[in-house]
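To fix ideas, we give here one paired sequence and structure record:
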Amino acid sequence: MNGNYRHTQRAPLCLLVYGTAVMFLVLGCVLRNEPVIQWVFPLTGLLMLILAASLHHLTVEDEGDRLTISFGPIPLFRRSIKYENIASVEIGRTTILDGWGIHMSFRGGWVWNVWGRDCVVLRLRKGILRVGTDDADQLSEFLNRRLTEQEPTSRGR
């Protein structure tokens, strides 16, 4: 395959989650003599740290026969889509209600987004996936080129 693709988008929103996690950890230490808070706040802070590190950035990468979308640097959330399962690709925008993270969209399909409203809409054989990116033009161009290159082989099957 000619023209591999890999792009990572970073998001400042995780700084708010990191800050909140640190606040819970500090309050857990300061209020360690309070029966419930001494356990709940540190545990909540730790879980928020893990969540923030899991949603710090979003990487979209070509892996030969599939496109991989993964949040990180802790790789808890990852999805792969085989190119043969992508029917079409277009540049789009998420709505304010779509927001950030991983969830169903009110318009149907899934949203994987870390920051901003630009996205690439993947119309899959079964469903829709909106992939948030600050590189929508290049990702769309890469995917459309990849789908065009794949057409002759999929017709011969």
